[in-house]
Amino acid sequence: MDRPGLTPERLTRAGAELADEVGFDQVTVSALARRFDVKVPSLYSHLKNSQDLRIRIALFALEELADRVADAVAGRAGRDALTAFAGAYREYARDHPGRYAAARLRLDPESAATSAGVRHAQLARAILRGYGLDEPDATHAVRMLGSVFHGYVSLELAGGFEHSAPNALESWEWIVDSLDAMLRDRSTR
User: Fold this and answer.
1) 13 CB-near residues (< 8 Å, 6+ apart)
2) How far apart are CA 105 and CA 99, in angstroms?
3) Can you tell me the distance from the alpha carbon of 18 to that of 56, in angstroms, rounded to the nearest whole number?
4) Is 114 in contact with 58 (CB distance < 8 Å)?
5) How far apart are CA 162 and CA 189, in angstroms?
6) pTM for this predicted structure
7) Over its length of 189 residues, how does the chain's per-residue pLDDT go in tens digits?
């Protein structure tokens, strides 16, 4: 028998919260069933399996992160937009480490094409238009920003910057400043 109020959306949100608490790798249908104090089979009317749950959490996290970044960059341009984009990305990862890990889940091509991952690239391209980059430099820059932000945030979340000076925020700001300078230098305008 289904527990009243259980829906795929509610289970996805609870799975995302669980990911932040215990790590995305630990999220399973069984763990979610324990959270709702129900038997595992009762969740299978809402979820196919643990992989379905993981994909739903990944899609949810991508959407949530895209919304946060879009809000941060609205009305901004150039260095200000880049700083807002970077800051929103870093803050999301720090606020929601499990969801951030979920957003890195490799999706099948169809899911990826319809996910908010497309919005992430569009937001990055919108910021980069202010730098006047032509192709293929614009695509290289989108990939560079994603790589730098993800690499830094991943190392920071793993504690990689805790035992040395300067502090992680100071290094982050230095990196964003350096990215801005490099993008302005590569500008075709």
Assistant:
1) 60
2) 10
3) 13
4) no
5) 40
6) 0.90
7) 345 588 999 999 999 999 999 999 999 999 999 998 888 878 888 988 889 999 999 999 999 999 999 999 999 999 999 999 999 999 999 999 999 999 999 999 999 999 999 999 999 999 999 899 999 999 999 999 999 999 999 999 999 999 999 999 999 999 999 999 999 998 876
